[in-house]
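User: I'm new to structure prediction. If I give you an amino acid sequence, what do you actually give back? Let's try with this one:
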Amino acid sequence: MRHPEARLPSGQNLAKKARGPQQNPSMIKYIGSKRKLIAELLATVQTLPKVETVLDLFSGTSRVGSALRAHGYRVTANDHNAYAYALAQCYVAADPDRWTTAASEHIGRFNQMLGEPGYFTRTYCEEARYFQPKNGARVDAIREAISGMSLPAPLEAILLVSLMEAADRVDSTVGLQMAYLKQWAPRAYNDLSLRLPELVRGPAGSACMLDAFECVRGPSHDLVYLDPPYNQHKYLNNYHVWESLVRWDKPEVYGIARKRVDCRQYDSPFNSRTRIRSAFEALVDSIDARYLVVSFSDEGYVTEAELRAILERRGPTAVSRVDFRRYVGAQIGIYNPAGIKTGKVGHLRNQELIFTVACGGGQLPALA
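Assistant: Good question. You get back a string of structure tokens that encode the predicted 3D arrangement of the chain. For your 368 residues, that looks like this:
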């Protein structure tokens, strides 16, 4: 591994190093994505000595996990949502040398398929307006084809990610599936076209679809990266279309957004103002690792002081801050079917807090 223990490169040089040798793959639009923090996170991890294995406990799109893999770390990516599990299988676990040819051949055939309207078209193109019906019909046809193939899990995940990303490129939202645009987005008129996902080279990782508390009861890792939900917004609700596309369980839906009915029952302490602090504290206390890296927004339910107090129980803690433009969908116009603009614009910028913790009495290089 490339982790100097005596003289550490400057943060600026580490950030430059983090951008090579491979760019982070293109992925779906995602409000929880850490795309703009990749260089900072990699720079942070690369200062920590003798780190080879990393657990990404709330992996989401696997942007962080895939970037770590590309830079030589062996990553386990975990998320309880099915769409995130597919992304982790594709970008963290799949072997490009083994699956590229087969995936390319399937994708080539899918791009020649005609549409066949079904559940996806009815639910997300007619009852709602996330996609043009012509593209929904092709999603239906391709997803049914994948479902009937009995493919090896890594290959199926690559194809599902290819289909998800293709649909994302022709959707009519601002990145959340809680609403859709009043007028069709220009990209929605384009024809659905699948591409081979940008598979990542690096140490073979693994993907899990477990509750976070269950996952940390598994093998220990040199470092655990935590990017938990931090307020009332639930990722299952925000990306319910992708969840249904991957599961292909054709669930009952409700409301204008045509969300899965299980969105009503889903409950996480990390989305609760009254429960998040105790849940986060219990999770941090149960982790077996030499280092923790925690990403948390300053608009979360837990304050910086509260987070620091929890983390300092495990060891020396440092924090850095990254300022970024806040995602405000209402600025560019989200409307309900009645033509009423929804959402209020609040503050326009946020800070992402990145905490680094040396567990068990160790020292952080920056604190040495």
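You can read the tokens as a compact description of the fold. Here is one thing that stands out. Confidence is low (pLDDT under 50) at residues 1-23.
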